[in-house]
Amino acid sequence: MRLQSALLTLLFLWPATSFAKKDDDRGKPHRAKAGVKVKVKAGVKVKVQGPRHAHPHPQKVPPHKVHVEHAPGRRGPRRQIRVTAPKAYGRVKHPAEVTGFAPSSGPPSTVVTIRGRHLDGRVRVRLDRRPLEVLSQAPNMIQVRIPAGARSGYLSLHKPGGPPMQLSPAFNVVSPPRITSFHPRRGYPGTVVTLRGRNFIRGDKVLLGNLPMEVRSVSPNALTVVVPQAGQTGRINIRRAGQPIASAWGAFVVQLQPPVIHAFRPTQGPPGTVVEIQGEHFGPSDRVLLAGRPLSIKHRNARRIAVLVGRNRSGHFEIRGPNSRRAISTDAFAVVRPPHLRRFRPRVGRAGDTVTVWGANFQEGDRLFVGEVELPLRSSSGQRLVAELTPNVAGGRVSLHRGPETYYAPGKLKMIHPPRILSFSPTKGHTDTVVHIHGEHIDGSPLSAFIGAQRLRIVRRRYPTDIWVRIPRGSAGGRLAVVTPTGRAEAASDFRLLAPPLGFTVRPRAQRPGRDVTLTLSRAQTGAAVRLNGLPLPKKVRDGGRRLIVTIPARASSGHFEIVLDGQTYRSREYFRVLR
Question: Is 385's pLDDT higher than 80?
């Protein structure tokens, strides 16, 4: 009775109680407060049952039962044990509900966001029994941080007044990788390298310096990668989520194969020309030389190098790299320097003469000009050009044309052209006739004109193509000629001098048909023909041709007498009447 009174008193003082059903040797159950000690026989089962009525959802909570079996003790058949009742939950107005969380994996310090409903209040989150730091909290969201040293496991959420909730799936704590070694430690581009270490996962990016390496295979303790073609000596590092998280100790030495030069373009050019060299196995630290002198590199890759030609001499391209790597081009590059025209001779020339230009850096394909006229080259070398002056050269500056560029020699070339008569008019005439001579290069001082050996007076000039001269009295005609300081030119034909005009008188001035009429000439002419008003008349020559006697025919009509001599027609001034 005393024991029963004590138990009833404890039930009123302690709300969380437990019923301990003890089957002793007499089979009587006993009530005891949680945490009390009871004596049982060895081998007796003790069942502890919690208060299901205190849980807000009793239908979802299984009975809390604890079965304890005791082996016989060393101190006798009876032994004291401590009976602990399950925790009793009070009613929760809004229990926590979880819809999911993300991410489901990550390294330590990863922030995990748990989403759901009624997540406010004093909510505690654990990862495999390890409490997590709560960064932010809202009724529908709570953020926690994965601590350092955490292990993979299930996340659990506990809100006061409710049972713990285990979240699925398990959170995978990804530990940062570590590279302990790699092999081989040097090699050519394309070499397969094996990384040894731990915590490697698929998706890890491996880089050699800043160049990505191809990943062949992945395991937690090994990575197989390939050295890139453009790889350079440097450290191998692993990036995860864009951040470098592991690096190998020591650098991987990229051994480049000996360079090979296949071709280069262009094959020649002046200083400042950019030449592209094509080949294989060009390294990032390779140097390029031309005739033993280094060149400036504009850009490069493993197969092409662009270099700038400076004030180098012509020669072969050479590529030099570390570890005695070396390559020499088969063909030579010709450095074409700008031509330099120092002087030329003669300063004054005629058509057909040769002009010589001295200078430097002349080459095949250069063109020589005087003014706007190109000269045909007779010979050429690197220091001298010989060309012929053509008749169409008018003189001017001597220049050399190379592509779009033009280079000039100091001074000007003066051309001396001999005169040339192309035509003259009239081709015949009397004395005092003015003759127009047309030609080329009829200029200069002194300028003279001749007909035969007789000098002519120049009455008009239009240089350099035309002059006008007068035929003097007493001239017998002949070949016209022009003399200038550059030479002498003659016409292709003679100027034919006509006889002076023929005068004659007619006596009588009127006569009947059948009668004679005497024509007295100013000079003797035996070959002259006589006509009367266009009608030819027979004649008789008297006094050696000074007098001509003609008979008036019956069909003649009044008019003027005409004498035809050397193609010229001379008409009488007096009018002759035929009497009927």
Answer: yes
More reliable by pLDDT, 322 or 144: 144
Contact 327, 319 (CB under 8 A): yes
Which residues, 6 or more positions from 560, have their beta carbon under 8 angstroms from its beta carbon?
Answer: 532, 533, 571, 572, 574, 575, 576
Q: What is the pLDDT of residue 485?
A: 84
Q: In what order do the strands lie in the sheet with 19-22?
A: 19-22, 46-49, 65-68
Distance CA 318, CA 277 (A): 10
Q: How far is 524 from 545, CA to CA, in rounded Å?
A: 4
Residue listed under structure tokens 């009976």: 83
Which fold does the domain 504-578 belong to in CATH?
A: Immunoglobulin-like (2.60.40)
Question: 160 preceded by cis ω (within 30°)?
Answer: no
CATH topology of domain 420-497: Immunoglobulin-like (2.60.40)
| pLDDT tens column, 401-411 | 988 889 999 99
Residue 446, preceding peptide bond in cis (omega within 30° of 0) = yes
Can you give the pLDDT at residue 565?
A: 83
Lookup result for tokens 């047309």: 438
Question: Looking at domain 260-335, which of 3.30.479.10, 2.60.40.10, 3.30.70.260, 1.20.1250.20 is its CATH number?
Answer: 2.60.40.10
For residues 45-62, average pLDDT: 43
Contacts with 524 (C-beta within 8 Å, 6 or more apart), sequence order: 543, 544, 545, 546
In angstroms, what is the C-alpha Rg of the chain? 66
In this prediction, residue 19 has a pLDDT band, given cuts at 50, 70 and 90, of very low
C-alpha angle 571-572-577 in degrees, rounded to nearest 5: 120
Question: Which helix (H) or strand (E) element contains residue 141?
Answer: strand 141-145
Confirm if 111 and 144 have CB atoms less than 8 A apart.
yes
Give the percent of the chain with pLDDT over 70.
Answer: 84
CATH architecture of 340-415: Sandwich (2.60)
Cβ–Cβ under 8 Å, residues 471 and 480: no
Beta strands 325-335; 268-269: pairing state: parallel
pLDDT average, residue stretch 19-33: 42
Instruction: Please count the residues of the chain.
Output: 580
Query: Using CA atoms, how far apart are residues 44 and 68, in angstroms rounded to an integer?
Result: 8
Cis peptide before 346 (omega within 30 of 0): yes
Instruction: List Cβ neighbours of 105 (8 Å cut-off, separation of 6 or more).
Output: 171, 172, 173, 174
The answer for residues whose C-beta is within 8 angstroms of residue 212's C-beta and 6 or more apart is 205, 206, 228
- Residue-wise pLDDT for 498-546, tens only, equals 877 788 999 999 999 999 999 998 888 888 899 998 899 999 999 888 8
- Average pLDDT of 264-287? 90
SS (H, E, C) 27-95: CCCCCECCCCEEEEECCCCEEEECCHHHCCCHHHCCCCEEEECCCCECCECEEEEECCCCCCCCCCCCC
Q: Give the count of alpha carbons within 13 A of 315, CB side only.
A: 16
